[in-house]
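Intended use. Records like the one below are meant for learning the mapping from a protein sequence to its folded structure. Do not use them to infer anything beyond what is encoded.
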Amino acid sequence: MQTRHRVLLGSAVNIDLPSDSVNLVVTSPPYPMIEMWDQSFSDQDPQVAHHLAKADGPAAFEAMHRLLDQVWRECHRVLRVGGFACVNIGDATRSVFGQFRLYTNHARIIGACEALGFQSLPAIIWRKQTNAPNKFMGSGMLPAGAYVTLEHEYVLILRKGGKRIFVHDDRERRSRSAFFWEERNTWFSDLWDFKGVQQRLGSNEARSRSGAFPFELAFRLICMYSVQGDLVLDPFLGTGTTIAAALACARDSVGVEADEGLIPVIAATIEAGAALGNERQLARLRSHEEFVRRYRTEKDREPGHTNVAYGFPVVTRQEVGLVLPGVTSTRREGELEWFAGHETLYDRGEPQLDLF
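Structure written out for the chain above:
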């Protein structure tokens, strides 16, 4: 199996993809009212800077979101019926000329997307562990002036239309793309608790312009809401994490990025993603083997079914056709396009990679 991965330079307001061509959107936009993004929003709409200068935080917040609204409209256009948009977003706390308040980015995006026709499904709260010594903001130990610290973000789950209908070859791809019963119980919880991964690739300047989420977040969402061979889109590609995770999961992918200076960082992320993805898939196999051992001990019996590809026990019939894809080769064609080869991954060491 071969997958294709592309970067489109330009604005996500007009994505060079046909309507109804994308199966899944996984993205994290610039967060309105987070200071590091002020200039980016102001460059697109000078009214943002005007409102901030006039100490009108709510008006600046709304102007920033009107820019994002155009991207959600384009995502709705390119998504197939039954496709999902998974949006990682954090709320913002900010003082604008001494007026401190919360800006509820997640609620504003939900409202805009529902107005476009998206259906909201239960969201995930991602608790980003922190070692910060100060767990509050404001007046120290004196009452009625301190504010709790936000230590979580949201992953909004939005669907275009009703449930996806799988027919013919899609059913086989869906079967191969199954996840383990024990993974389902963790992944489909509404609370995720893992750290963000420190960005190790590219220049400090490039990283400062990116709000990259960790590989694990994109990897889970792609496994949960798409099947092998599907097309995954990230309209705010940043450092390229979504493409790396899509490659690891044997999905096609397209990322849109306005900053050409991030291309070397994106390329490095994709190169690292092949090995990282195989490591993550191997960890899934080994975790399942450990789960089976615990299952036998605790229940004094075998799980009720057998996976065809691996021959090990699984709990449900839906896991019988599960196959974890390993990346066996990658090649880069031109500046902005990559191809990857995939075969069934077995637990006998990391596959030999033919990298760039």
